[in-house]
Design brief:
Layout (H helix, E strand, L loop, with lengths): L10 H20 L8 H8 L3 H29 L1 H20 L4 H29 L2 H33 L1 H10 L1 H15 L15 H19 L12 H21 L14 H32 L3 H7 L1 H21 L1 H24 L5 H4 L1 H23 L7 H34 L3 H31 L9 E3 L8 E3 L5
Antiparallel strand pairs: 1-2
Length: about 500
């Protein structure tokens, strides 16, 4: 089959286009954590109830997770540039609507739309990186993406604290959303000029797997709802949704397998899971995010509710983690090609050591000086996080055929969102249960952090097991034969390889 060669953009335009993608990714991921310190402001200025505040946080995570895989597949089929720009425009409009919301109910609605838009943007970023870069440059680009993922999540509480401190309690929460407007508009204008136009796939036009979307969406919804609403839905009945989720996801797997056997284009190419690098990387990512994102949730609550820090001071206390994470991710992007999964093992070990250091610090230095005492452990954990997220993303997606990069990125990030929700539910339950029984003591945050370390150890065990398997039984370089890429990917052939 003759394909049309897609001329790659010049180097400077590719890296500038990457900057646009990372900027959009930054503001969409920032919004997962920036609102945490703004909840008291919403209660004071808008009269938002606890239920409404919960949905402002969890509703965003929920729709974000639901949109990832369908949006990634849509970008694979119809063009990642178009899907990215539409998602970014919708996110910017939804941010403006959130900031202007006249009531808590409208805020929740606009927040759900904002999360959907963020879920549209995220998988296009990884797909565009796959298209625009190869080899060492691709690892470097994923390293920068890892920096954005780590820093945006960690810096959210600081950014929210700064805004509320500057504007005031009554309207500070509105500016948590308004801050997205100039960034979103600038990124949209730059994206229209810089993002490359890759031609559509040659040959038969693929159909969108709508029934697969319904099965996957229902399964993810049933899985995430009891997790994101764990504190608000009392009783055990909510956990009945878990077996329902398992049945729906099993039905989705069977349907996708059937679609593939019939020669149709499934929503998720199950062949991706035959790549050990993708399967292990997705599991490591899910486990790590279940432990990593919970740290900022319980630690900033501890600093404000138990120690008496302001929102700004609590945000400043996690800044060492954010800054160190950026440094670690940049280094990880350069080192991953040489060291592979070993780098992820080192990174996860660093995070565990850093969090254990925080546990010791809050015991030895209670009171107002705890932020200074935890700074060094936070730096260690941040460097470890940078050496984990960036290299693991590179290793997980590097063998994925470019024509499936959007859907693969959606699967990876869906695991991250599910992991985050599950981790917050588990760690939050430990933290709040101890507070309920023993008051606001230092022991509550120590138990919460130790639970997070335990979850991160699961990711570490997976990474160590994979590393030992590779060392004792090296895999052959090429195992799956060539995967032909149409004009969308530049008319070349890519050999899918297993391994790191």
């Amino acid at each position: 089959m003759t394909t049309v060669q897609a001329r790659p953009a010049p180097d400077d335009r590719r890296w500038k286009a990457l900057g646009v993608c990372l900027t959009a990714g930054f503001i969409s991921l920032l919004d997962t954590s920036i609102v945490n310190v703004a909840l008291p402001s919403m209660e004071h200025g808008l009269g938002a109830s606890e239920a409404a505040q919960s949905w402002v946080v969890s509703g965003y995570a929920l729709t974000f997770g639901l949109a990832l895989v369908p949006a990634g597949r849509l970008g694979d089929m119809r063009g990642r540039r178009q899907a990215f720009l539409f998602g970014l425009a919708l996110f910017t409009l939804a941010s403006a609507a959130c900031g202007l919301a006249p009531s808590a109910s409208w805020l929740v609605l606009f927040r759900l739309i904002q999360g959907t838009a963020a879920g549209m943007v995220a998988p296009q970023t990884s797909g565009l990186i796959q298209q625009m870069f190869q080899g060492v440059e691709r690892a470097k680009a994923f390293g920068l993406l890892g920096s954005v993922i780590g820093v945006s999540t960690a810096v959210g509480p600081l950014a929210g604290g700064l805004l509320i401190n500057a504007v005031g309690t009554d309207d500070g929460w509105r500016w948590v959303f308004f801050v997205n407007l100039p960034i979103g508009v600038a990124a949209l204008a730059a994206g229209l000029r810089l993002l490359p136009r890759f031609p559509a796939s040659a040959g038969r036009r693929e159909e969108f797997d709508l029934f697969g979307v319904l099965l996957l969406g229902s399964g993810v919804l049933a899985l995430m709802l009891p997790l994101v609403q764990e504190q608000q839905w009392t009783g055990r009945l909510k956990w009945a949704l878990m077996p329902v989720a398992a049945l729906l996801l099993a039905a989705f797997w069977a349907w996708e397998k059937r679609e593939g056997q019939r020669g149709r284009a499934p929503l998720v190419d199950l062949g991706l899971f035959s790549l050990r690098s993708f399967t292990l990387g997705a599991l490591i990512s899910l486990s790590y995010f279940a432990g990593f994102t919970t740290v900022f949730f319980v630690y900033t609550l501890f600093l404000q509710n138990t120690v008496g820090y302001s929102a700004l001071t609590a945000g400043l206390s996690v800044l060492p983690f954010a800054a160190a994470s950026a440094v670690g991710a940049a280094a990880g992007g350069r080192l991953v090609v040489r060291h592979g999964r070993k780098l992820v093992v080192i990174g996860l070990s660093g995070v565990a050591v850093g969090l254990l250091g925080v546990v010791v610090a809050v015991q030895l230095v209670p009171g107002q000086d705890v932020g200074w005492a935890t700074a060094l452990p936070m730096v260690i954990g941040g460097i470890g996080s940078g050496l984990t997220v960036s290299p693991n993303t590179t290793l997980t997606l590097t063998r994925v055929p470019v024509r499936r990069a959007g859907a693969a990125g959606g699967v990876l990030q869906t695991g991250q969102r599910v992991g985050s929700a599950a981790g917050i539910a588990v760690v939050g339950a430990v933290y709040f249960a101890h507070q309920a029984n023993h008051g606001r003591s230092v022991t509550a945050i120590q138990l919460g952090l130790l639970t997070a370390v335990g979850i991160i150890m699961i990711a570490l065990l997976l990474a160590v097991a994979d590393l030992r398997e590779r060392q004792s039984h090296p895999e052959p370089e090429a195992v799956a034969g060539p995967v032909r890429r149409g004009s969308e990917e530049g008319g070349t052939e890519e050999t899918v390889r297993r391994g790191s």
